[in-house]
Amino acid sequence: MTIRINIATALFVSLVPGIVSCSDDNNSNTPDEPSGPGIAKITVVDYSPAPGQFVNEIPEYTAGDNKAAIIAKAQAAIDKGQLVSLGAFGGSITFKLDKPIIRSLDGSPEFRVLGNTFLSTAENAPSPWGSSEPGIVMVMTDTNNNGQPDDNWYILAGESFDQAVEPTVTYTDNSAAGDNAKFVRWEDNHGNSGWLSRNYQYHKHGFFPQWTGKNTMTVTGVRLPDNASYDDATQTYRLHALRGYADSYPNTSDASKLSLYNARTASGEVITVQRVDFVRIVTGVLQNNGALGECSTEVAGIEIF
After folding, report:
1. What pLDDT, in 10s, does the model give residues 284-294?
2. pTM for the full model?
3. Which residues have a Cβ under 8 Å from the Cβ of 182 and sit 6 or more positions away?
4. In which residue ranges of the chain is pLDDT below 50?
5. Which residues are CB-contacts of 126 (< 8 A; sequence separation ≥ 6)?
6. How far is CA 271 from CA 18, 26, 93, 231, 264, in A?
7. Which residues pair with 172 in a beta bridge?
8. b/e per residue, 118-134, with b = 16+ CB within 10 A?
9. Nearby residues of 303 by Cβ (< 8 Å), 6 or more positions away
């Protein structure tokens, strides 16, 4: 399967340059001064959520905010260890690390992206489930040493990555119709379509990022298989956990740890990434789950091991 690792929307200029296939990405001349264990110091360099139930809430939009103001609010939340919502499939946040993550010598995981997942069953169950909303994790080395995320992005391939596809999805605001079950329409370039619903009891705001002033959005990204199943007995959705992603296993779980040994190029080839200066997280699932609403990755920072 060939996957172009880029995320582009009608609302912002993509920060992702062309990606090349190669066996090594260790060309940075910056001295290796790795992040120490603990919570990484990071700077939010981009925040571009897709429509979602927590968009405009975490962080909170205030009338008059522009994108710079929202990024500042996202930064303030991350600095406090609070959550930032990426919205539905294709929504993203990009971090610059104060000090790089260095590839381990023994293949052990180097970091995790902090989220808010909890599990309702034992982690060693055949298919643990809970509130998992998997986010694709992408990494970049500042090869040209200019401090900007304009080099090559690589994906950390987790569970079910071999089943991923790369659709282009367009979201359209349908809130004027007054139908909370069909609040936002989505359709992709393969003829698929569906709806994001709104639970009006808890979410009375619009789902589109209000600072953009737009009511349509187009994203292209890597879509994982749907991870939620419906349980007829309890009439609830079970969001099954997938290893190797953000916001999919609890922060205390070894299954939430991420390894640079899983880095892949645009064509899915294994690549050796020796250091990471930028991390991007992108909601990787496009699924609406009844009263739970859409799958939307939430992040609260990066922990280094």
Report:
1. 999 999 888 99
2. 0.90
3. 174, 195, 197
4. 1-23, 29-31
5. none
6. 16, 10, 23, 39, 6
7. 185, 216
8. ebeeeeeeeebbbbbbb
9. 38, 39, 40, 111, 112, 114, 251
Q: Tell me which residue has tokens 């603990």.
A: 38
CA gyration radius, the chain: 18
Q: What is the pLDDT of residues 144-178, one digit of tens each?
A: 999 999 999 999 999 999 999 999 999 999 999 99
Distance CA 45, CA 207 (A): 22
CB of 96 within 8 A of CB of 41? no
Please tell me the number of Cα atoms within 13 Å of 137 on its side-chain side.
33
Q: What is the pLDDT of residue 27?
A: 54
Q: SS3 for the chain, per residue?
A: CCCCCCCEECCECCCCCCCCCCCEECCCCCCCCCCCCEECCEEEEEEECCCCCCCCCCCCCCCCCCHHHHHHHHHHHHHCCCCEECCCCCCEEEEEEEEEEECCCCCCCCEEEECCCCECCCCCCCCCEEECCCEEEEEECCCCCCCCCCCCEEEECCCCHHHCECCEEEEEECHHHCCHHHCEEEEECCCCEEEECCCCCCCCCCCCCHHHCCCEEEEECCECCCCEEEECCCCEEEEECCCCCECCCCCCCHHHCECHHHEECCCCCECEECEEEEEEEEECCCCECHHHCECCCEECEEEEC
